[in-house]
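During the first year of the project, the team set up a workflow for recording each protein of interest as an amino acid sequence followed immediately by a discrete structure-token representation. This format lets reviewers and collaborators read both layers of information side by side without switching files. As required by the reporting guidelines, we include two representative entries from the current panel. The first entry is reproduced here exactly as it appears in our internal archive.
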Amino acid sequence: MPEYCGICGCELNRNGKYASPTIEGRSHATSHHYIASRFNKLVQYFPWKAERKSEVFCYECHEELLHNPILLPKDIELFSKIVKKRKFDEGKKVENIDKHAKRIVLFHEVIAKGLQMLAVEENIVDGV
């Protein structure tokens, strides 16, 4: 039974050529954890309860879209201003990781609000 990418919907390949610049490599199945295991020390700060949950995507959507989002200088500058406004900035790193966790939650908020706005504009969902 075929599997399909959770984002673009392409039929997934599990027969090799992972990451090669071919149709097989670009469509290779790869699993993405919603909350990376390296964040285990932070999950107490996260409201989502999605630890250990994952979905399967094609190589392109997983590695090139989810893992490497394109953030331009103006995007970073604006995000930094929001970080500072909410007092999630740090002059020097300290043992406490609260502010780091709050920046992660904030970044998700930015993405979620942007997605919600676009979904409304595209008439996919009603306004909030």
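The second entry, processed by the same pipeline in the following quarter, appears below.
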Amino acid sequence: MKSELYNEEEIYKIEDAISPIQLEPDDFYIVICYADDLNNGGREKLSEIISALGWNFSLNAKLIELQKDEQIAINQFLLSNQIRVVLTFGFTSKQLGLQIQSSKYQKLCFEHVQHIQADSIYELMKDKSKKIQLWNAIKEYKI
């Protein structure tokens, strides 16, 4: 059942979004990025970020890697009582199916879920100021 807080009017729709993601009972943290962003040291950089937070992809977090031509509607996670944080790298609000404009590194609250959009992992590796912005946005989620 949808909350009365959400407008169900569809402003734009993501065509061909990947089907709903199956979560494990202990998946509290969702990380979404493009698979290409994990090349050339990107996977290692993402591992550093996740480790610094105390998250673990085999215990309490789920990594969703999309191909460049794939899209995802993250609303499937935003009304979940299970998910605590959704962290996305390299996506615009529209690419995520969000019907609001949001800024990178700004926390969006959806009921129980916090969403943070960041630059791509590749951009983070090139620009130290973006890494600092990311850390300032996510450090409160360290466990």
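For the second entry, the following points were noted during internal review. The chain has a mean pLDDT of 85. Helices lie at 42-53, 75-78, 121-126, 128-138. Both points are flagged for discussion at the upcoming steering committee meeting.
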